[in-house]
Fold:
Amino acid sequence: MILERHEFSSDNVAPICQEALAALQEANARYAASYGEDRWTARACDRVQEIFETDCDVYFVFTGTAANALALAQLCKSFQSVICHQNSHIQTDECGAPEFFTGGSKLLLVGGADGKLEVGQVKELLARHNELHSHKPEVISISQATEFGTVYRNDEIATIAHLAREHQLFFHMDGARFANAIASLNCAPKAITWEAGIDVLCFGGTKNGAAAGELVIFFNKEISRKFDYRTKQAGQLGSKMRFLAAQWLGLLTGDAWLRNAQHANDAARRLADGLRKEAEIERVFPVEANAVFVPMDERVASGLYARGWRFYKFIGPNVYRLMCSWATTEKDISDFVADVASISLNK
Ligand SMILES: *Cc1c(COP(=O)(O)O)cnc(C)c1O
Structure:
């Protein structure tokens, strides 16, 4: 595959990876039953259970927003609430889908450095909770990896899980970049999910190399009852589900999902190193997954845009996000770093 120059805008600007594409082609060679009654769907669910080493319930949806919103709607009644980070995707990037699909639940926002919930603030929020007169906290949600490219360590997840159990809250994980977190921590998927107390994981395939397709995985089977009806009502029950499932088989059979994630993480680390050494630009957050956040002058950013690079301004007045993917090459990184250095250092 010959790609033009890499874009750092997001990991979803990357093409479909070879493994997912080959699996799509293989699934495209014949007729098959619809609405998930096919063998690709069955095999993909088996493979998810193998990878997580448990008997979990697996559902396929088209977007991460649908995965999060429907999972939260399954956990949370309209008069209940979800505790999450103020910069979480469910708060900032889902157009109110969690509030809409829950029919009125509120997101209760908490701060914390590096995109991670600060446990002290969660405790304060729970203590402040005004019974009967405000939404009752029912779920704690974290993103793994976080929106700032950091990764919760096992012990940090265990601490939040402990708090969730103490207050009888469900624990939801937005894993749009779960693969990057696993590659980063180099641990068994179960270690930071059901073993650690996660009830529901939204596991992203799109940013990992699929065309589309996210999993909603219930480790607590009691709460997945009738979830198939919820996905259908939301227009998320694919009639040709086999093509979502086939891509997952492509990613999960063997270890393409982990290789893709590792590749993206390594690219981000090299990008951050290059920018530090060659352009004297320090990353804002620790680079633990596939994102690098850097401060840059307006002048440097517009110079880079003029040279054809694409990326977003993210937080604060001058912080930009550079996202790497399975498709980022050495040359993408060295060309970008060279352009940053030439624009920023030749003032
Ligand atoms: C990309 C992303 C999602 C899913 O977004 P969609 O565009 O709806 O697929 C969810 N959570 C996080 C943290 C993300 O980065």
About this structure: The domain at 18-254 is CATH 3.40.640.10 (Aspartate Aminotransferase; domain 2). The mean pLDDT is 96. The CA atoms of residues 22 and 111 lie 42 Å apart. The chain has two domains: 18-254, 256-344.
